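Design request, tokens follow.
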């Protein structure tokens, strides 16, 4: 397309959501340009050599239960664009100072067994959700308001539990600290204080994802998700421009619509004067959530193969080599 012709849409920000927006437009036959400030697409789904040469680390996201369950991703054939999922032998481990970890496994039964006296309560809470996962997950992962959920009754049942805070739900469901701590760890994906309403939804949701579709990682790191989405977009005729930080809408080429995959303050900076005073105030009032960090390490030796999850609870955490625990971190590209 020539530089002066008007496109149907420009998307600013090539994180996974910006890429998804651009693909949706391109699939609908619209001409679309995706503009990204960084040298590579991906935003929070990028991989880079952060520690040592040859060690690829995921800069932000590493484990992708939402992507693998997403109806949108399922409709894209991303395998043809180089995306391959690795499903670990267990989905997640919640560590404790004074005992073995609680393991989230694909099987509700095996997970419940690791929760001791709270196993029955866990089975009772999760089994109905897992049974209905095929119908429930597309609604949970779909648009919030429109189109309306296809299974409103299931959503309502989920909503009744989800509305509580994680703290309240964990105390109501479980008696022991291990089950409560495990649930809190899952709910912490809300990135909100665990006393806040609706944080219980994240506890149920991430446990459900673990049992229904798994918590996989992309072979070669999260950047492979971005690469596959970018390849898909290009195959549909979409254009991508990296290394261009947009400071104002005025500097963009003509387009019928501009979509911003940015945070409220970034939007204020780029669009501010054009927005209504009311909307500007709403953006200014937006409070960012608590910070998050993760620890990435590059080791000298190849990590030991993890023992089967069923044996983890029987060993002392102190005697287990740390490398035997699955963890988010770097992956070595070449032979070690
Ligand atoms: C430490 C950490 C760990 C995480 N772990 C996981 C995980 O394991 N699994 C998971 O599913 N999620 C995880 N997440 C969340 C995930 O990274 C985000 O949900 C996701 O990246 C959001 O995508 P997005 O497209 O909305 O925004 P982003 O990924 O933030 O993308 C926004 C893009 O906009 C670009 N941009 C910004 N300003 C401009 C501008 N002015 N002009 C042009 N481009 C601009 C940025 O460079 C960026 O590429 C994690 C996040 C963090 C911080």
């Amino acid at each position: 397309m020539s530089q002066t012709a008007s496109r149907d849409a420009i998307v600013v920000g090539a994180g996974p959501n910006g890429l998804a927006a651009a693909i949706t437009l391109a699939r609908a036959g619209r001409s679309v340009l995706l503009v990204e400030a960084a040298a590579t697409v991906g935003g929070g789904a990028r991989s880079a050599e952060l520690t040592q040469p040859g060690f690829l680390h995921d800069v932000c996201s590493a484990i992708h239960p939402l992507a693998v369950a997403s109806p949108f991703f399922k409709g894209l054939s991303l395998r043809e664009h180089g995306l391959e999922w690795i499903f670990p032998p267990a989905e997640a481990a919640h560590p404790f100072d004074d005992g073995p970890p609680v393991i989230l496994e694909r099987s509700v039964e095996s997970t419940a067994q690791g929760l001791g006296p709270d196993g029955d309560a866990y089975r009772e809470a999760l089994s109905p959700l897992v049974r209905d996962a095929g119908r429930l997950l597309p609604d949970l992962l779909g648009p919030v308001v429109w189109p309306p959920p296809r299974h409103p009754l299931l959503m309502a049942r989920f909503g009744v539990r989800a509305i509580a805070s994680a703290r309240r739900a964990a105390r109501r469901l479980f008696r022991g600290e291990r089950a409560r701590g495990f649930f809190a760890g899952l709910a912490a994906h809300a990135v909100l204080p665990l006393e806040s309403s609706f944080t219980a939804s994240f506890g149920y949701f991430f446990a459900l994802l673990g049992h229904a579709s798994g918590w996989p990682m992309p072979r070669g790191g999260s950047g492979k998700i971005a690469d596959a989405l970018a390849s898909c977009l290009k195959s549909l005729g979409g254009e991508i421009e990296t290394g261009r930080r947009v400071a104002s809408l005025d500097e963009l080429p003509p387009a019928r619509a501009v979509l911003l995959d940015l945070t409220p303050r970034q939007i204020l900076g780029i669009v501010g004067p054009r927005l209504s005073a009311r909307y500007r105030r709403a953006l200014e009032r937006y409070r960012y959530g608590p910070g998050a960090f993760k620890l990435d390490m590059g080791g000298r030796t190849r990590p030991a193969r993890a023992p089967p999850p069923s044996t983890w609870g029987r060993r002392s955490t102190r005697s287990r080599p740390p490398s035997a625990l699955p963890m988010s971190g770097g992956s070595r590209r070449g032979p070690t």
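Comment from the thread starter after seeing the answer: thanks! The mean pLDDT is 89.
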